[in-house]
Amino acid sequence: MTTRQKVYGFLAVLLIAGGGYWGEQKHHWTSALGIGASANAAAQKAKKEQKKSEPEAVLVEVAPVKTGDIAAHVSSSGNLRALRDVVIATQAEGIVQKVLAEEGDFVREGQVLCQLDEKPLRIRLELSKEKLAQAKSQLQKAGIRQEKTQVQINHADREYVRYKTAHESGLVSEQEADRRRLSLDEFKHDVQIVNSEIAELRHRIAELESEIAQAELEISRTQLKAPFSGYVTRRTVDLGQRVRNLDPMFNLGSFSPLYAEIYLSEREAHQVRAGQTAEVRLGADGDSSVLGRVERLSPIVDQASGTVKVTVELKPSASGFRPGAFVRVDIRTDTRNGVMLIPKRAVIEEDGENFVYVASNGKANRKKVSIGYESDGAIEIRSGLASGENVVVAGQGGLKEGAKVKVSQS
Q: Model pTM greater than 0.70?
C-alpha cells in the first residue's frame, strides 16, 4: 500500500466518524425542541381554559350622583280655550251690502264687520223727524193760544168783579153782571181745551222722539261691530244675503290670554293652589312649551268622573298656541333644593323596592335606595347613595352583585 492510499484511507475514516457524531447530536437537538414545544402548547391551552372559566366584564354606562334642585308635579291633559269665544248675531233685518271681515282677520273693538242696507230705516227716520217738527209747531201755537186765553181770563175776571160790585151798589143790572160771569166761564173753558191740546201734543212729541230714537238705533244696528278685539274664527254671512234679527253672522274669539282646562283626581287636586307655576306643552309638538299659572280650581267634585276642574292661564307670550289645541299640563306643586339626583333610568324596581348598581373598582355593587320626586328624566335619591358615586344607567339588566364591569368611554 502506497503512502497516498494510506492518507486517503485515514481521511475516509475521519469523515465517517464525524458524520456519525453529527447525526447523533442532531437527534438529541430535535428531541429537545419537540419536548419544549409540547410544554408551551400545554401552557397556552391551560391559560385559555382558565380564561374561559372566568366571567367576562360587562360593558356599562355610568353617571355620577349629583346635587341639585328638583320639583314635584301633577300632570294632566286637556284642550285650550280662548278668553272669549262668542257668536255675533245681527239685531236688525235687511240685505247685506258689505262684508268687511274674513276668517282669520284680527279686528279691534268697535270695528265694523258687516253693513246692512239702511235706506228704508233712513226714510222712516226722516218722516218721523218731519212729524216731530209739525208737532212742535202745533205745540208752540197752542202755547200762544194758552197765553192769550189766560190774558182774557184775567181781564174777564176783573170785569166780572167790577160789574158784580156795581150790581150790588145798584149801578148795573143783574143781567150785566151775569153776562160778565158767563164770558169768564167761556174763557176758562177755552183754556182747559188748550191745556188738553198741549198735553196731547207733548205726548205726541214724546212718541215721535221715541220713534226717532228707535229708528236711529235700528240704523246703528245695520252696522255689525266687534264687541271686543279678537280674531274672526268663522263667517256665516254672504254679500246680498237677507238676514233676520238674531241670525248668526260671525264667530269672534279673544286669544289673549288662553286657558287650559284640565281635570285632576281629588288627591292630586289637594296639592294644587291658585298661583302655582305650570308648564304647558303642545300635544302635537312636545318641543313647544310655555309657562302658565293656576288661575282657579272648581269648588266642587264632578260626581260622574270624581275629578276637579283646574283652569291654567297661559302667559301672553304663548305664540303658536291656539284655542282647541290639545296640550299637556305639568303643575309644579313643590320644590326641593340641594338634593341628590341621578338619571331615572338607573333605578331598578323589584318587588316594590328600588335598587341601583354602583360601579366601583371594576365591579358592580347593588344598593337599595329610597326615591323622592321625579322630573325631566331625573329622580331624587333620599337615602342609599353618596354624592359622587357612579351609578349604572345602561347595561344593568344582566348585572349581579359583584359582577365585573367595564365602563364605556363614549
A: no
